[in-house]
């Protein structure tokens, strides 16, 4: 099975990544709910990297690599860009306040943090790497 | 994402078919932003064919909920698949929004 893909930074490729992750997880004896949660967490980070990290510039690429080792799923998302996306100042949002003010975005990383066990963002120069981990045991 | 509309005198039903993500949610936002939608007493969202929702899709509903409430329009979801309902549950949105199992129950609200 192919464990890595490269996509250009357009929203149209969100489904490509979702299908890639879903196909990888399908034969791992996981529930539909668990697969959907992991696919969702990956989709949220990929959307942020495409839209905020790379400004939907289709000439930019995102490398996606998945791995399952000792019942731990991990995924690496790598791009080369001067603008790094790293939600280091992340605070859990107040959803009732979001409803009150009609806020459209801002709950993606809340989903990611609630679904995945670990989320890491690292940057070295123009080299940005995001790693997500989930124990499937 | 395909959105099919069915309107009666006081109720608009939107049937969502496909995947609601950061790419397709713009279409839903356009539908929910139309001023005439607030003339309905109820807007029912049929989720039977909704196979996936991300934060972008959730954000569209979050962003319109208050204006619907202010206008006295009830927003009700029904026929939601378990994996989609689970996404609402992860954020606790199932307690902020009205989600019922069937169309009959949605119409009865």
Automatic annotation (TrEMBL), chain A:
Pfam families: HATPase_c_2. It comes from the Bacteria. GO terms for molecular function: ATP binding; protein serine/threonine kinase activity. Residues 10-132 form the Histidine kinase/HSP90-like ATPase domain. InterPro entries: Anti-sigma-factor_SerPK (IPR050267), HATPase_C_sf (IPR036890), HATPase_dom (IPR003594). The keyword Ribosomal protein does not apply. The keyword Transmembrane helix does not apply. Keywords: ATP-binding, Kinase, Nucleotide-binding, Serine/threonine-protein kinase, Transferase. This is ATP-binding protein. It comes from Hymenobacter rigui.
TrEMBL record, chain B:
One of its GO terms (molecular function) is anti-sigma factor antagonist activity. Residues 1-109 form the STAS domain. Pfam families: STAS (PF01740). The lineage of its organism: Bacteria, Pseudomonadati, Bacteroidota, Cytophagia, Cytophagales. Belongs to the anti-sigma-factor antagonist family. It comes from Hymenobacter rigui. InterPro entries: Anti-sigma_ant (IPR003658), STAS_dom (IPR002645), STAS_dom_sf (IPR036513). This is Anti-sigma factor antagonist.
């Amino acid at each position: 099975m192919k464990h890595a893909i490269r996509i250009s930074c357009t929203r149209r490729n969100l489904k490509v990544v979702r299908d890639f992750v879903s196909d990888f997880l399908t034969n791992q004896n996981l529930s539909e709910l668990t697969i959907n949660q992991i696919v969702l967490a990956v989709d949220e980070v990929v959307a942020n990297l495409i839209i905020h990290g790379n400004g939907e510039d289709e000439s930019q690429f995102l490398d996606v690599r998945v791995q399952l080792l000792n019942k731990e799923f991990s995924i690496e998302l790598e791009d080369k860009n001067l603008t790094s996306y790293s939600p280091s100042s992340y605070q859990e949002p107040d959803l009732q306040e979001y409803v009150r003010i009609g806020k459209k975005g801002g709950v993606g990383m809340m989903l990611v943090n609630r679904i995945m066990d670990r989320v890491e963002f690292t940057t070295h120069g123009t080299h940005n790497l995001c790693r997500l981990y989930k124990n499937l045991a | 994402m395909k959105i099919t509309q069915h309107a009666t005198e006081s109720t608009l039903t939107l049937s969502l078919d496909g995947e609601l993500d950061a790419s397709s949610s713009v279409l839903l936002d356009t539908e929910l932003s139309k001023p005439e939608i607030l003339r309905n007493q109820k807007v029912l969202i049929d989720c039977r064919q909704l196979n996936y929702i991300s934060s972008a899709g959730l954000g569209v509903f979050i962003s319109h909920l208050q204006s619907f409430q202010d206008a006295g329009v009830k927003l009700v979801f029904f026929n939601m698949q378990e994996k989609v309902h689970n996404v609402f549950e992860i954020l606790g949105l199932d307690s902020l929004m009205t989600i019922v199992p069937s169309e009959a129950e949605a119409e009865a609200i």
